[in-house]
């Protein structure tokens, strides 16, 4: 478990204490309200301000007062779970310099020890030089330290047979499948089969399907999903209403978390459609726009 600087921890504790204040008091101390109860989710962490899917991006979201972060989970050649979006290492690390003869630099071709040698921060800015690719365990430790919540994506699960069971095992080992933590966790994927598998293995875990299924197909997805999470460019108020009229796997109306919205006017428009959450690289911009509009 990694420990953050004292100032950052103090900020996190202050932010946490506001959660337990009466609503009026919390709003008075922070100057913030919630628009339509729309959740703001930091996409790959606060990825407009720190290198995506790193511990620095988790901390950047925390420093902005953002409770929810989103990440992507994949598996190394030696079977370890790491957090990275692309199925290759080249865009967000210096793998081409460190291992020039290993093209196309697929995650599944590298061991954890090799990946830990990479710099996953310098591509974003010199101040992040040496930032590492985190393991899922390291990532969960940091989210726990920050008292944040996690929207966890199983990325390209077809490349990693059994990753659903392995991820759930890791979450259980980290304490994230107890009653208290499960309220802070959603597991999602673009693969319906993967979401279905997670629901079968742990029907108590909240799940989301990434995509925009046809309205006629929503009852089928609702058998194993609690959320339908589409691109904002593919939805309108009618579609959101249709999704929310169907009860999901836990008997509550399906939720909609839409992605990736990075400007205030679009966020206000999408929130007006009735979505439950907005996934964004700029969580402060989205939150503030929603607050100003409410």
**Number of distinct beta strands:** 9
Outline the low-pLDDT stretches: 5-35
Mean pLDDT: 90
Helix content: 25-40%
Report the end-to-end length measured between terminal Cα atoms: 39 Å
H/E topology pattern: HHEHEEHHHEHHEHEHEHEHEH
Q: Per DSSP, what share of the residues sits in E-state strands of 2 or more residues?
A: 5-15%
Content-based structural category: alpha/beta
Number of alpha- plus pi-helical segments: 13
Shape: globular
Q: Radius of gyration from the CA trace? A: 19 Å
Major sheet: 9 strands, mixed
Task: Annotate the secondary structure layout.
Elements: H1 6-19, H2 23-30, E1 39-42, H3 55-63, E2 68-75, E3 81-83, H4 95-98, H5 112-115, H6 136-145, E4 149-154, H7 163-173, H8 179-182, E5 185-189, H9 192-201, E6 207-210, H10 218-222, E7 227-229, H11 237-244, E8 257-258, H12 264-272, E9 277-280, H13 283-293
Parallel strand pairs: 1-2, 1-9, 2-4, 4-5, 5-6, 6-7, 8-9
Antiparallel strand pairs: 2-3
Characterise the protein shown here.
The protein is 36% helix and 13% strand. By secondary structure, it is α/β, with parallel strands linked by helices. Strands 1, 2, 3, 4, 5, 6, 7, 8 and 9 form a nine-stranded mixed β-sheet that branches. The protein is globular.
Keyphrases for this structure?
single chain; 9 strands; 36% helix; 13 helices; 13% strand; alpha/beta; nine-stranded mixed β-sheet; 294 residues; globular
């Amino acid at each position: 478990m990694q420990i953050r600087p004292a100032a950052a921890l103090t900020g996190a504790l202050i932010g946490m204490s506001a959660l337990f204040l009466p609503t009026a008091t919390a709003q008075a101390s922070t100057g913030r309200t919630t628009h339509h109860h729309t959740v703001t989710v930091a996409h790959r962490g606060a990825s407009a301000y720190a290198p995506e899917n790193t511990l620095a991006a988790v901390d950047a979201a925390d420093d902005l007062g953002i409770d929810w972060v989103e990440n992507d989970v994949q598996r190394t050649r030696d079977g370890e779970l790491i957090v990275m979006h692309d199925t290759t290492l080249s865009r967000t690390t210096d793998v081409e310099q460190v291992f020039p003869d290993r093209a196309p630099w697929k995650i599944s071709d590298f061991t954890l020890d090799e990946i830990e040698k990479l710099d996953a921060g310098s591509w974003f800015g010199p101040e992040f030089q040496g930032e590492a690719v985190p393991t899922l365990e390291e990532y969960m430790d940091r989210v726990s330290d920050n008292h944040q919540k996690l929207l966890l994506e199983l990325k390209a699960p077809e490349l990693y047979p059994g990753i659903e069971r392995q991820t759930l095992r890791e979450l259980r080992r980290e304490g994230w499948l107890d009653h208290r933590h499960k309220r802070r966790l959603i597991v999602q994927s673009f693969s319906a089969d993967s979401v279905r598998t997670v629901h079968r293995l742990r029907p108590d875990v909240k799940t989301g399907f990434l995509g925009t299924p046809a309205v006629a197909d929503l009852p089928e997805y609702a058998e194993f999903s609690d959320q339908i999470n589409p691109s904002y460019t593919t939805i309108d108020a009618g579609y959101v209403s249709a999704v929310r009229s169907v009860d999901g796997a836990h008997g509550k109306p399906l939720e909609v978390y839409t992605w990736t919205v990075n400007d205030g006017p679009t966020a206000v428009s999408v929130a007006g459609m009735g979505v439950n959450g907005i996934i964004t690289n700029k969580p402060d911009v989205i939150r503030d726009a929603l607050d100003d509009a409410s």
